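Why do we bother with holo predictions? Because pocket geometry can differ from the apo form. Keep that in mind while you read this record for flavin mononucleotide.
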Amino acid sequence: MNDLFSPFTIKGLDLKNRIVMPPMCQYSVDKKDGVATEWHYMHYVSRAIGGTGLVIVEMTDVEPDGRISDFDLGLWSDDQIPALKRIVDACHSYGAKVGIQIAHAGRKAEDAEVPVAPSAIAFDEKSKQPRALTTEEVKGQVEKFRAAVARAVQAGFDTIELHGAHGYLIHQFHSPLTNKRDDEYGKDLTLFGRQVIQAAKAEMPEDMPLLMRISAIEYVEGGYGIQESIAFAKEYQDAGVDVFHISAGGEGPIAAWGRPGTHAAYQVPLAKQIKESLDIPVIAVGRLDDPILANAVIGNEEADLVAVGRGMLRNPYWALETASKLKKETQIPRQYTTGF
Ligand SMILES: Cc1cc2nc3c(=O)[nH]c(=O)nc-3n(C[C@H](O)[C@H](O)[C@H](O)COP(=O)(O)O)c2cc1C
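The structure, written out:
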């Protein structure tokens, strides 16, 4: 039986354990230039020292106006590669593998003068009114994703995660609520996502797995549910996704009935359903910071990997401390052995 500290291999990616740091925006770029700073270095390398198997760098955007804020990371320029490479190299030296989440915020780009989106539909009445991308511009966005992925590969990342969740651009294309286009990208709601996947794969080494984060259910009135997301995830799997990272929501104002209780492990049933329906590895995330619970999700085969977000913001050594609590073997940095 596997547990949190069993190794995991997919294609050429070998993880020493099943613990993932999920992408978490730090809004900590200094000069609006999208370049990672000393904060990012300390933040990610601490979690590598802390025993995390896979560190996924926060939402990193394919163009300046594709960012939630001007203080987010970007990979639209070669100038952004070296600072990321320094983080990757340091994480590697402490035994972690490193991924990066490549994204475009679409209509949720708060600092863009006029955000772009599949259709000119604002997120809510307080949000900026986006404009619809032309068909040519949509094709251009695919190429921006391609270029950002190529730069991530150059920076030495071990895997790439496409952000297809939380109401950002890829999600906006596959959701019928936000995509009302009448061109090919509206007639076929997953076309944009599939083209981005194919472009990413073309830039990645053959043995590098592609991760994709999706919202398995939407929380808005008339939003899609798990059956619809299983169907579109199947199309993304066929296009080349190797692992799904299962989240939920983010596409618009939450419906009157609210969101499902954000209790411990609230998204695990969604991860399990996608895993079983598509026979594909999944990362579960969402209030999984209790070590016994996280371990049970792996032991019960509900997910292949467990991501701990806020738990790792509180404690960069979450993985080491969890090994100690569960009495599992893990490599503790020599300097810290007395602490354990
Ligand atoms: C500060 C912060 C920033 C986040 N930024 C991102 C992000 O860049 N991309 C993403 O997909 N999710 C993001 N999330 C969501 C987390 O990856 C994770 O799914 C969520 O926090 C639930 O997991 P948790 O209960 O373990 O924190 C963010 C969450 C937090 C708390």
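The radius of gyration is 19 Å.
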